[in-house]
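Re-run with default settings, no changes from the original entry. Doing this only to confirm the output is reproducible before filing.
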Amino acid sequence: MSESARDLLVRGVAAAKAGDSKEARFFLEWMLRNEPTADQRTEACLWLSDLSQEPSEERRWLEEVLALRPADSRARRKFALLTGDLRPDEVVNPEALPAPTEDTAAPE
């Protein structure tokens, strides 16, 4: 793993989380020019898709992730939402699932 790419990714993600999209974009795009690993490239592209103001740019970043990792669930979900194949109200938040009831509990 390239240490410089990792450091740039960490800085880019931190800037994105802090709401500084200009700085985040700077570090993430710089990282992509430094021969990152496939995992690093995937993370940077996902963050860049979140930072995108234009749907066409968001689509381009998501397509790059899916070219690297066709089964990446985060990219597939974002892409489906972007293209309209999935509506926001159809997305299930696994952290907000209701507790199992007697009807849905696993048999003993």
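The chain has a mean pLDDT of 86. The longest helix spans residues 3-17.
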